[in-house]
Amino acid sequence: MTAIAVTIAGSDSGGGAGIQADLKTFSALGVYGASVLTALTAQNTLGVSAIHDVPADFVAAQIDAVFSDLAVDAVKIGMLSRPAVIEAVAAGLDGYRQEKVVLDPVMVAASGDPLIVDAAVGRLRDLLLPRVLLITPNLPEAARLLAEPVAEGRAAVEAQAARLMQCGARGVLLKGGHGTGPESADFLLTQAGGRWFAAPRIATKNTHGTGCTLSSAITAELAKGAAIESAVAAAKDFVTAAIAHADELAIGRGRGPIHHFQKFWRED
């Protein structure tokens, strides 16, 4: 059987994040990828210059087209900028009985540009968290979802992860990439308990699409049948290698993408 994953997310015209990063990740990990576009961005390595939201009824039509035909094994959700789109996605998850759902609550681009309106944050928390297997916020996103200050220190991170689970998510991976120190440490909390995943912090400005890639790598591993902890461990390794090789690419004049295909592309 062919493992199939679907990404429900926004497009990055520069190719480094969003739908484009998700499909690259699925392919690199041996999973067939399909997509549902929720927004189009005019974006490059320097930032986001415009956003065009896809109407909620057309998002629903894409969901129907994909899920009525493909035997979907796992779903990744990314940029959902408007309440009506969030409601359409929630209805689609229910209608097609999706269980392996990873939510990356994308709120701000790597350039600092906002990607979600304030009115959508509460709908995202209330409608989608109870429907997902795992949510993967970074530190600022977790703080915004909880209307709390950004967590500092491991105890505060663990406490915020627990409060996100109280909102309905079956698992939380709170990402530490926005933290400081020699390591980038992520905290996974599920009903089975908590575990920290640490990797060396790599000195590079080319980290565009890191969060999208991590959540889609987890989704790909879940689609192949991995348990959640194993999926997170494999995804963390994949992203760390992609960041480590990012400077081998020469893309744009700003914050460049990570190297999704570092295992396959070789210099002549």
Q: Any key phrases for this structure?
A:
single chain; alpha/beta; UDP-N-acetylmuramoyl-L-alanine:D-glutamate ligase; six-stranded mixed beta sheet; three-stranded antiparallel beta sheet
Structural features, described:
The protein has 268 residues and is α/β, with parallel strands linked by helices. The protein has a single domain (4-248), classed as UDP-N-acetylmuramoyl-L-alanine:D-glutamate ligase, CATH 3.40.1190. Helix content is 37%, strand content 22%. It has eight helices and nine strands. It has helices at residues 18-28, 56-67, 83-95, 118-128, 139-146, 154-166, 210-223, 228-244; strands at 4-12, 32-44, 47-53, 74-77, 101-103, 134-135, 171-174, 183-190, 193-200. It has a six-stranded mixed beta sheet. A three-stranded antiparallel beta sheet has the order 7-8-9, sandwiched between helices. Helix 1 packs across helix 7 (210-223). The longest helix has 17 residues, at 228-244. The termini are far apart.
Q: How do you describe this structure in short?
A:
This protein is α/β, with parallel strands linked by helices and 268 residues long. It has helices at 18-28, 56-67, 83-95, 118-128, 139-146, 154-166, 210-223, 228-244; strands at residues 4-12, 32-44, 47-53, 74-77, 101-103, 134-135, 171-174, 183-190, 193-200.
Which helices and strands appear, and what pairs or packs with what?
Layout: E1 4-12, H1 18-28, E2 32-44, E3 47-53, H2 56-67, E4 74-77, H3 83-95, E5 101-103, H4 118-128, E6 134-135, H5 139-146, H6 154-166, E7 171-174, E8 183-190, E9 193-200, H7 210-223, H8 228-244
Parallel strand pairs: 1-2, 1-4, 4-5, 5-6
Antiparallel strand pairs: 2-3, 7-8, 8-9
Helix pairs in contact: 1-7, 2-3, 3-4, 5-6, 7-8
